[in-house]
Amino acid sequence: MARVLIVGAGLTGSLCASLLRRELQDKVRIEVWEKSRGSGESEPEPQGLHRGSGESEPEPQGLRMSTSRPPDPSSHSADLGAQYITATSAYRKSHHRLYAELLSAGVLLPFDSSRIEGLKHKDGSAEVFFERHVTGLFRRGASWEVQSRAGDSEMFDAVVLTIPVPQILQLEGDLRESETHTHTHTHTLLCLSLI
């Protein structure tokens, strides 16, 4: 069975895992590696090196959205960034099938200003590993060797990077020089939030 790694457990990584599962069904084993303690998080790097916990249900977040959690889990948290999906009529029509599927599964809910619900976790049949920070991608024949900060490595048939371009540029290994050169001219817009 083919193995696919998705790097990043934000909205893009979660959607990618869902679409791959829908199209390829049981023909592929999907893993998601996220460097943070949870999906869509923005946090300081942990003091020690930890392997992923193997939790299997990513929260749909991303698009530089994040949940900031302090070290004390009984304390507060803050959600930053867009907390909803906005679609124009044309976009909604062209993506009707996807929206219908997400609505029927309860992943998306119509906005009701009188009631705000928390995120609902749905099993996307992907193995999700938190605190697994990718540091290198190396081509090995038809496969990719993916190295983590903890020093271990695993082989995958395909790797999908859903992390920001500045993080991609920090990866060691066999990313083509032309791809790296192209992306060095990509700019990330800064958004500040007062919490």
From TrEMBL:
Organism superkingdom: Eukaryota
GO terms, molecular function: oxidoreductase activity, acting on NAD(P)H
Biased composition (Polar residues): 64-77
Disordered: region residues: 34-79
GO cellular component: extracellular region
Database matches in PANTHER family: RENALASE
Name used for this protein in its record: Amine oxidase domain-containing protein
Organism this protein belongs to: Pogonophryne albipinna
